[in-house]
Design a protein that fits this description.
Largest sheet of chain A: 8 strands, mixed
Number of helices of chain B: 12
Oligomer: heterodimer
Radius of gyration of chain B: 21 Å
Mean pLDDT of chain B: 90
Distance between the termini of chain B: 56 Å
Low-confidence stretches of chain A: 1-30, 372-405
Helix content of chain A: 25-40%
Order of helices and strands of chain A: EEEHEEHEHHHEHEHEEHHHHEEH
Strand order of the largest sheet of chain B: 6-7-8-3-9-10-11
Shape of chain B: globular
Largest interface: A-B, 67 and 62 residues
Structural class of chain B: alpha/beta
Order of helices and strands of chain B: EEEHEEHEHHHHHEHEHEEHHHE
Largest sheet of chain B: 7 strands, mixed
Shape of chain A: globular
Number of strands of chain A: 12
Distance between the termini of chain A: 62 Å
CATH class of one domain in chain B: Alpha Beta
Structural class of chain A: alpha/beta
Mean pLDDT of chain A: 82
Strand content of chain B: 15-25%
Chain lengths: 405, 335
């Protein structure tokens, strides 16, 4: 791939581009024959909205995705993490070809999705699919399992109708659905089984890439694990490439080779999984880690959380400079003015493939920054196996001021 | 506020509770012989999957089961008084006043046409007879207590003007407004982002500690309660299958289902290459009678006895009890 950080643009958010070659080293020489499965270059997605004001309505723009670059190599899983409104689902839909980007490009196997239309686009669409979060909403309640799974085959004209039935049965086996349920309706299934239907449906046209938009967030934990195992198994058997969108760092960390952390439409940090989990550098990434629950009371007692002040600002008027500065515990004057570029930091264990967009990343990496109380230091999370220390419970909410007594 | 006093009886004692939903397919026994008690200031996590009976148990305590459901037997002693013997009118004086509820989805629980202040002053008026400026002042005090910034301004805000986390703070303020002796939180953070989830759970823990309120925290994820509860009760198929103080439950789970649930939770501190532990199979169908242990069909340790005989919580007199015939020798999976 070509240089990914020089995404010059006039909008003041230059360098907010994220990305890097997934899986260190593999991208360099070797065989330039095949481009990465997905190559997103400085993509923007702006939605116009009508806002009712006192003196009539105004047109405004939601900056849902504002200059993001990333690549996903064949057979890999890229994790996209962030909280509600960070733009991760919009980015997923851009990659799945469901939106045309306002600016920038999304390439699938070297082909610019935005430049295609009609028959060409439809032919390409067959090769990437999407699975949505809520299997209660995403399956047509009036279609049987068989027709839900077979619909993609019919749309893309794959096989004769007689062959399709056999293919549907095969897909049901593949995702662990009983064949004799083929003429049942979605409401007769549990959440986990519905998600299996959605996965079978996505697999039907034999795609190379599947965008998984929070595929297990709506499921019980024991069922979550079943679905995640299924996804891993399918990836190994079929050589699939995944873009996994989620908010649960633990799920992402155990599924992906590479992780991208988004905040308000831009990339805050992107790194190989091990780096991200052992030495996250962006204060927002660290706050996310510090909030991830660990099912072990001993670990929970010694952990410190990073409190985030206030709420995620509006993507209609994103903050100037670093978008995270309004909530960042270590923001300085420069953060309000200059947009931090994504850059590599020299630190043991980090490579040029590990990028962070923070003005103070060097200080954080060097450990010279007086981080506020409650900070998780690199490695704390990774080393949180039973290591009892003097236990003081974490409390961040100021006491109730006596009023509730 | 009273000080903790172990000599006093439990705030809540649920004895042999059974509740059923009557559906077209027949009677679904959602809660089966559930017994537990809760002391002042104690937080119990009630953990289980969809359909395990955890919400039905909580709704039974509030007597807010939907119309097609009925409590068939048992006792729910709240401060010594059996709630099941009260009239609806008596019950409505307890709900919201002595027992607070924090629901899963705050958006669905707040009236979109009422401001946050309206909700609060109505509640304070009905239960405590507060009016006018007194009620307003108290409302703002409570909003401050739950960490709502600019409480005076938020007093006049409608629910849709607040974020999910802020709405949940309003719900918490409403739930604690009358300083209830018992607080029920039904998956209070499931709809929220992770950083907000951590904040809300800690807020609930802090408030229950400060007010010495007994709290039941309902969740499907054992992972999130490790930092914020005193005891854990794990439910499966309508029954409590294990109940224990927090640390021993996490360190030495005795029921195979509890262990399975713990192993299912992916961890940020243990990276694997896509190796997810799961519990095979599906939760049981609660229609009609289940002979034997309801977990047996999914259990790696199950023997003939498990299929035939239903295990009771043992050893009965201790604080760590599990309903499993094989709890003495977990760890040795029969080949």
């Amino acid at each position: 791939m070509t240089g990914m950080s020089g995404a010059a643009d006039g909008a003041g958010a230059s360098g907010a581009a994220g990305g890097g070659a997934a899986g260190g080293g593999a991208a360099g020489g070797g065989s330039p024959a095949r481009p990465p499965v997905v190559e997103v270059r400085d993509v923007r997605m702006h939605f116009p909205v009508q806002r009712q004001g006192l003196f009539g309505s105004r047109r405004e723009v939601v900056h849902a995705v504002d200059g993001v670059s990333l690549t996903i190599d064949r057979g890999q899983t890229l994790g996209l993490v962030g909280e509600s409104g960070c733009g991760k689902s919009t980015l997923g839909r851009l990659v799945a070809g469901l939106y045309r980007p306002t600016a920038g490009s999304v390439r699938f196997d070297g082909l610019d999705i935005g430049a295609l239309s009609g028959k060409d686009l439809r032919a390409l669409r067959r090769r990437f699919q999407i699975v949505f979060q809520d299997p209660y909403m995403s399956l047509n309640p009036r279609m049987t399992v068989g027709s839900l799974i077979g619909e993609g085959l019919a749309i893309h004209g794959i096989g004769r109708p007689s062959e399709r039935a056999a293919r549907v049965a095969e897909l049901m086996d593949l995702v662990g659905l009983r064949r004799d349920t083929v003429s049942r309706y979605p409401h007769e299934f549990s959440g986990g089984q519905r998600q299996r239907i959605a996965i079978a449906r996505a697999l039907a046209p034999e795609p190379e890439l599947i965008v998984l938009d929070e595929p297990v967030s709506a499921l019980d934990v024991s069922i979550q694990a079943q679905i995640l195992r299924l996804l891993v198994d399918l990836q190994q058997r079929l050589g699939l490439t995944y873009l996994l969108i989620g908010h649960d760092l633990a799920v992402i960390g155990n599924m992906c080779q590479r992780v991208v952390v988004m905040y308000l439409g831009v990339v805050a940090e992107t790194a190989r999984r091990e780096t991200m989990f052992q030495a996250p550098l962006h204060p927002y990434t660290r706050a996310l880690f510090s909030a991830a629950p660990i099912p072990d009371p001993v670990s929970e007692r010694v952990r410190r959380r990073i409190p985030l002040e206030g709420e995620v600002p509006s993507p209609i008027h994103p903050p100037s400079g670093c978008r995270f500065h309004t909530r960042c515990p270590i923001a300085v004057a420069q953060c309000r003015v200059d947009t931090p570029p994504l850059r590599a930091i020299t630190l043991a264990g980090r490579t040029d493939a590990d990028l962070v967009a923070c003005h103070r990343a060097d200080e954080i990496a060097a450990g010279t920054l007086p981080m506020p109380a409650g900070t998780v230091r690199p490695g704390d999370v990774a080393a949180a196996a039973p290591a009892p220390m003097s236990a003081t419970p974490t409390t961040r909410i100021p006491p109730a001021g006596g009023s509730a007594q | 506020m009273a000080t903790p006093n172990d000599e006093r009886g439990p705030v809540l004692e649920v004895r042999d509770l059974n509740a059923s939903f009557f559906t077209r397919r027949g009677e679904v026994r959602a809660v089966r012989d559930v017994s537990f008690s809760l002391r002042q200031g104690e937080t119990l996590a009630l953990v289980g999957e969809s359909g395990s009976g955890k919400t039905a148990t909580a709704m039974s305590i509030l007597r807010m089961l939907p119309g097609k459901a009925k409590i068939s037997s048992g006792q729910i002693l709240f401060e010594g008084q059996d709630l099941l013997g009260l009239s609806n009118k008596q019950m409505s004086k307890i709900r919201g006043r002595h027992i607070g509820l924090i629901p899963q989805d705050p958006a669905a629980s707040l009236n979109p046409l009422m401001t946050c202040g309206d909700h609060m002053t109505e509640l304070l008026g009905v239960h405590l007879g507060m009016k006018g400026t007194t009620a307003r002042a108290r409302a703002i005090e409570l909003f401050t207590a739950v960490g709502i910034p600019e409480p005076e301004r938020r007093f006049d805000a409608y629910p849709h003007q607040l974020s999910g986390g802020m709405r949940q703070r309003v719900m918490i303020a409403l739930a604690i407004a009358c300083q209830p002796a018992l607080l029920l939180a039904d998956e209070p953070t499931t709809a929220l982002d992770p950083t907000i989830q951590a904040q809300i759970l800690e807020l609930i823990a802090t408030l229950s500690r400060e007010m010495n309120t007994a709290t039941i925290l309902i969740t499907h994820n054992l992972g999130i309660v490790a930092g914020v509860c005193d005891r854990v009760a794990v439910m499966y198929g309508g029954r409590i299958v294990e109940i224990a103080p927090r640390d021993p439950l996490f360190a030495e789970p005795r029921h195979p289902y509890t262990r399975g649930l713990l192993d299912c939770v992916p961890r940020v501190d243990r990276l694997t290459a896509g190796e997810f532990q799961s519990i095979p199979g599906q939760p049981p169908d609660l229609l009609g009678v289940i002979g034997g242990c309801s977990f047996a069909p999914r259990c790696a340790y199950a023997t003939d006895r498990c299929v035939d005989e239903s295990p009771l919580l043992t050893p009965p007199t201790t604080d760590h009890r599990a309903a499993c015939w094989n709890q003495g020798h977990l760890g040795v999976v029969p080949a």
